[in-house]
Design brief:
This protein has 256 residues and is mostly helical. It has three domains: 73 residues, Multidrug-efflux Transporter Regulator, Chain: A, Domain 2 (Orthogonal Bundle); 53 residues, no CATH class; 112 residues, no CATH class. Helices cover 66% and strands 4% of the residues. It has eleven helices and three strands; from the N terminus they run βααββααααααααα. A three-stranded antiparallel beta sheet has the order 1-3-2. Strand 2 and strand 3 form a beta hairpin. Helix 5 packs across helix 6 and helix 9 packs across helix 11. It is elongated. The termini are far apart.
């Protein structure tokens, strides 16, 4: 007991009481996060029951992802700016969650490829990395979409099965090649063939936008600014393809 009648605990007892390790208590002491209330005549660290509250704060902040340095700063400031600090931490955790979701989607796509095409092997891991990087690189597109559009895109993306995404990508690749061939053959934008290509193009775009005008607005802005896309983002088709499709759509009949 100390002079105030409050019980004191040696490090091992205090560690057992609070559910942390003695090594952690020593580490917190060295960092100045949690100093012992006093030392015994033999040099043992002694902690009070009231030290439990500070330790609980440390454990809680560490659990939600703060570094020990950040925790020290928070406790030093008495938690005065804790609200904004927690907000930043929440945003960081949400970003990590988004990355993990992207990784899960990439792995699901790889699983689908194995199931359908029977192509196991290390090249699939390369594909997973490629897909994750591509999804991460797509963050730059957000500037073209309103917050409403971004929320709508996320909601729609959550409903797409991996096989649906795979099919859409294949459909786009096939269609772009066919339009490029039509351009090379000097196809008339008003011809039946060009009109069929334009109709398929509109359907695939609608598959992404869901008919949402806000998403369509952002998509239009993004492609209008395609000369300023990041160097890491290759353009899926050339200006000639864009011009051909635009001309073909202008020739579409009202009943199409």
């Amino acid at each position: 007991m100390n002079q105030a009648g409050e019980k004191l605990f040696k490090a091992r007892e205090f560690a057992r009481l609070t559910g942390v390790t003695v090594r952690a208590l020593h580490h917190y002491d060295r960092l100045g996060l949690l100093k012992p209330s006093r030392y015994s005549a033999s040099g043992y660290r002694l902690y009070r029951e009231s030290d439990v509250a500070r330790l609980e704060q440390i454990v809680a902040l560490k659990f939600i992802g703060f570094s020990l340095k950040q925790i020290k700063d928070i406790l030093k400031n008495g938690g005065g700016d804790l609200s904004s600090t927690l907000r930043r931490q929440r945003e960081a955790i949400e970003e990590k969650r988004k990355r993990l979701q992207q990784a899960v989607k990439a792995i699901q796509r790889a699983e689908y490829v194995i199931a359908v095409k029977g192509q196991p092997g290390w090249e699939l891991f390369t594909k997973i990395i490629e897909v994750i990087n591509m999804q991460n690189d797509m963050d730059w597109t957000k500037k073209y979409y309103s917050e409403e559009a971004q929320r709508a895109i996320e909601q729609r993306a959550a409903t797409f099965a991996p096989e649906v995404i795979e099919q859409a990508q294949n459909d786009w690749a096939t269609l772009i090649k066919e339009v490029e061939a039509a351009v090379a053959a000097n196809e008339n934008p008003s011809s039946d063939k060009a009109q069929a290509l334009a109709a398929r193009w509109s359907e695939l775009v609608k598959g992404f936008t869901g008919g949402n005008p806000e998403i369509q607005k952002g998509l239009n802005q993004m492609y209008a600014d395609r000369n300023n896309w990041p160097a890491s983002m290759p353009r899926p088709f050339g200006d000639d393809v864009q011009a051909f499709i635009a001309a073909a759509m202008k020739c579409q009949k009202p009943d199409r």
